[in-house]
Design brief:
Blueprint lengths: L8 H4 L3 H22 L1 H10 L20 H10 L14 E6 L9 E5 H17 L7 E4 L11 H8 L2 E4 L5 H10 L4 E4 L1 H13 L4 H4 L4 E4 L8 H11 L2 E8 L3 E7 L6 E3 L4 E6 L13 E7 L10 E10 L11 E7 L4 E3 L2 E3 L1 H8 L5 E12 L2 E10 L7 H16 L5 E6 L13 E3 L1 H4 L1
Parallel strand pairs: 3-4, 3-5, 5-6, 6-7, 16-19, 17-18
Antiparallel strand pairs: 1-2, 7-8, 8-9, 9-13, 10-11, 11-12, 12-13, 14-15, 16-17
The chain binds zinc ion.
């Protein structure tokens, strides 16, 4: 039997015209459903003077109000336990995830049975697009506790892979599984993929030679979309690295790289993509950077209409070389992590891009942002590899020069530290230290 190329060929390769017609039909029903069943949306649409029937074309969505994390949290606190954005009675809800990593009250993300099944079908689709097949062994190394990434293992099972439910376990135990069970695929953060590979080496295990991992899915940090970071992890493991993107507010991963690794395909039959100028909130031109705004098209437990993600992306809608037609996003970083120096927007991912490309550095880095004489300045701290013989001043000059070329501004200082001086992250790395907040 010839192996299928796509998980769902019909949906994934729909012409743009047919895809948008499908989206429009779904969106009309979805807005109507939200307005009729979720008190929040009735109030918000009424306040904005719009009705679901005002949507005749996809572009009409711009007339509808935004949602964001703050609204989601406020409504949950005001209307316990799940908030009034929920559109179904509790007896229809079968699963609840909580937001990861954010401060304050965790936001809960409810799913009906159908939502959950469709969520897992999308996970299977994204896994399939990385080349994963039923012959693969998959070790799921994401946290299961209230985390929306936990159930993604069910998507891998749906695909037919042999699935090992490891969860977030200590590195030694995970390495034991990698040695004994020889899984071919895993999923983690880029920082942890790097950390785990380095840990293996310290124990005398060469991840490229002694382990069977040939595919690493990463999410949660921009690293998976930074070519040099991806390459470094790929070389360490002799594996292919694929970046996935998702939010618990929508569902787990709703975008992922295909084998072409040219952007992340968004599951556009489930989520509508807008890319807006974060200041004017007007759409940017195709391929220009802007804030990613997502709208669910089918999620019934809690519809999410025009959710401002706080992530800066570029989006292209032309057909990919893999044949899929769903839009691809290129992730640049979070607006929250961006800082402004001399009127220039700087993202930690710009610094990472530079640091990972310089011979003689370990790739670890930290950015310290501070105020000096009322002006924002930043220092970059990097580590020199033990084997590197280049003088510190020369390395520092190269970092400074390349950061200037990449981001448009020069760091005030570049500090060259010893190998191992910076903390290693085991989950999401904290590489930006902002001293301005403490000073205010
Ligand atoms: Zn593709």
């Amino acid at each position: 039997m010839e192996e299928k190329r796509y998980w769902n060929e019909e949906i994934e390769t729909l012409s743009r015209e047919s895809l948008e017609a499908y989206q429009l039909e779904q969106l009309k029903q979805h807005l109507d459903f939200a307005y009729s069943n979720a008190p929040y949306y009735r109030e918000a649409f009424d306040d904005a003077g719009v009705k679901p029937s005002d949507l005749r074309h996809l572009e009409d969505l711009t007339r509808f109000p935004f949602t964001n994390k703050k609204i989601e949290r406020d409504r949950q606190v005001a209307y316990p336990d799940l908030g009034d954005m929920v559109a179904v009675p509790e007896r229809e809800i079968v699963f609840v995830a909580a937001s990861s990593g954010s401060t304050g009250v965790p936001t809960l993300s409810p799913f009906t049975r159908r939502d959950f099944e469709e969520f897992q079908d999308v996970q299977a689709r994204l896994f399939w697009a990385t080349g994963m097949r039923p012959t693969d062994r998959y070790v799921h190394a994401l946290n299961f506790t209230l985390f929306v990434g936990g159930p993604d293992v069910i998507g891998a099972q749906k695909l037919g892979a042999l699935c090992i439910w490891a969860g977030a376990i200590p590195s030694d135990r995970l390495l034991f599984i990698l040695k004994e069970f020889k899984p071919t695929t895993t999923w983690t953060t880029p920082s942890y993929a790097w950390y785990l590979g380095e840990t293996a080496r310290k124990q005398g295990i060469d991840p490229a030679r002694d382990l069977a991992i040939r595919r690493i899915i990463v999410a949660g940090e921009p690293g998976g979309s930074i070519p040099a970071t991806r390459r470094a992890i790929e070389e360490l493991w002799d594996a292919e690295v694929y970046d996935f993107y998702g939010l618990s507010d929508i569902f787990g991963a709703n975008a992922g790289m295909c084998e072409a690794k040219d952007g992340l395909h968004v599951a556009e039959d489930h989520t509508l993509v807008e890319v807006l100028d974060p200041e004017s909130l007007e759409p940017v031109a195709e391929g220009e950077p802007g804030e990613l705004v997502l709208t669910t098209l089918r999620k019934r437990a809690r519809p999410m209409i025009r959710f401002r993600t706080g992530d800066i992306v570029k989006c292209v809608r032309e057909r990919c070389s893999c044949g899929r037609t769903h839009a691809r996003i290129y992730i640049h970083g979070r607006i929250d992590d961006m800082f402004i120096v001399s009127g220039v927007n700087v993202f930690p991912s710009d610094i990472e891009y530079v640091v990972r490309n310089i011979e003689g550095l370990t790739g670890e880095y930290r950015i310290v942002v501070y105020t000096e004489q009322h002006l924002t300045k930043f220092d970059v701290e990097v580590e020199k590899e033990r084997s590197c013989s280049r003088p510190d001043e020369e390395l520092a000059r190269e970092v400074s020069e390349r950061v200037k070329v990449r981001s448009g501004v020069r760091p005030k200082n570049v500090k060259i530290l010893e190998d191992g001086a910076l903390p290693r992250a085991t989950h999401k790395a904290k590489r930006l230290v902002d001293l301005r907040k403490n000073a205010q």
